[in-house]
């Protein structure tokens, strides 16, 4: 409710951008260097290749994964609330010759279904789950964007991430989200919540990867007969 209200008052298409240009550049430079090609390859094997696949990078940031998918033949849509990040990734796509395989959409994560009005062979969501309006509603958003028989990949830090540095405000907001499902701002979800939420949807398979102690990673395949 509070996050929806915030979104009504702060509109990216009117120039509001939560990410300053200088920060976007710093983050982009670090994250482009840290691009995990092994993860890209694992995803490629899992979905049976990127060639001709329609991929949504939901919360694409500076586009390091989106461009890697496009370089492997996918048609990628990047949806993000930050025009600064989208501008950065368009420049990178131009430099690397994949502009024709990338399109951009500016809006809040939860607005993607209404704005894009289509579904995808793969929905990729990395380290931005917690910017969704609410965990339950955002699971619905992600699931609705996957085509029947398509794939969803979510990687998010959970409540244990950076625990030592949480102040009272972020601890209180995480407690509210955990115990009462009231989300104010961007608290990390409780460990295990995503798997529970997606288990309630028609899926063919779900792999839950908890190998990094402070992250939840979910690999799921939507049932082929799901609406
Ligand atoms: C940590 S970055 C992750 C970017 C990218 N997925 C990656 O793997 O590097 C978080 C992303 O969420 C986006 N985002 C969505 N809603 C946001 C909001 N309300 N406030 C800040 N960032 C938001 C940011 O623009 C940014 O691209």
Task: Give me some keywords for this one.
227 residues, alpha/beta, Rossmann fold, seven-stranded mixed beta sheet, binds S-adenosylmethionine
Point out poorly predicted stretches.
Answer: none
CATH-derived topology:
Rossmann fold
Helix fraction bin: 25-40%
Strand order of the largest sheet: 3-2-1-4-5-7-6
Number of strands: 7
Span between N and C termini?
27 Å
Structural class: alpha/beta
**% residues in beta strands:** 15-25%
H and E string: HHHEHEHEHEHEHHEE
How many domain units? 1
Instruction: Give me the Rg, rounded.
Output: 17 Å
CATH architect. name: 3-Layer(aba) Sandwich
Number of helices: 9
Cofactors and ligands:
S-adenosylmethionine
Brief description of this entry?
The protein is α/β, with parallel strands linked by helices and 227 residues long. It is 39% helix and 22% strand.
Describe it.
This protein is α/β, with parallel strands linked by helices. The protein has a single domain, classed as 3-Layer(aba) Sandwich (Rossmann fold). Helices cover 39% and strands 22% of the residues. It has helices spanning 2-9, 21-33, 37-47, 64-71, 83-95, 112-116, 135-144, 168-180, 193-199; strands spanning 54-58, 75-80, 102-106, 120-126, 146-157, 203-209, 215-222. Strands 3-2-1-4-5-7-6 form a 7-stranded mixed beta sheet, sandwiched between helices. A hairpin with a 5-residue loop joins β6 (203-209) and β7. α7 (135-144) packs across α9 (193-199). The longest helix has 13 residues, at 21-33. The chain is globular, with a radius of gyration of 17 Å. The two termini are 27 Å apart. The protein binds S-adenosylmethionine. S-adenosylmethionine (SAM) binds at residues 18-19, 31, 59-61, 80-82, 85, 108-109, 126-128, 131. S-adenosylmethionine binds at residues 18-19, 31, 59-61, 80-82, 85, 108-109, 126-128, 131.
């Amino acid at each position: 409710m509070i996050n929806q209200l915030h979104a009504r008052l702060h509109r990216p298409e009117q120039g509001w951008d939560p990410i300053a240009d200088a920060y976007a550049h710093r983050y982009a430079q670090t994250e482009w260097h840290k691009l995990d090609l092994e993860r890209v390859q694992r995803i490629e094997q899992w979905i049976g290749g990127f060639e001709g696949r329609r991929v949504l990078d939901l919360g694409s940031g500076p586009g390091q994964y989106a461009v890697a998918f496009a370089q492997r033949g996918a048609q990628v849509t990047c949806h993000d609330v930050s025009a600064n990040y989208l501008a950065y990734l368009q420049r990178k796509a131009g430099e690397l010759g994949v502009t024709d395989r990338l399109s951009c959409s500016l809006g809040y994560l939860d607005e993607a279904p209404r704005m894009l009005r289509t579904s995808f062979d793969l929905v990729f969501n990395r380290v931005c789950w917690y910017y969704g309006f609410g965990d339950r509603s955002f699971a619905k958003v992600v699931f609705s964007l996957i085509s029947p028989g398509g794939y969803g990949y979510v990687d998010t830090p959970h409540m244990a991430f950076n625990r030592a540095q949480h102040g009272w405000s972020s601890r209180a907001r995480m407690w509210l989200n955990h115990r009462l499902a009231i989300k104010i701002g961007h608290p990390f979800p409780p460990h295990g919540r995503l798997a529970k939420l997606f288990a309630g949807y028609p899926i063919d398979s779900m792999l839950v990867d908890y190998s990094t102690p402070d992250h939840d990673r979910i690999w799921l395949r939507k049932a082929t007969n799901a609406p």
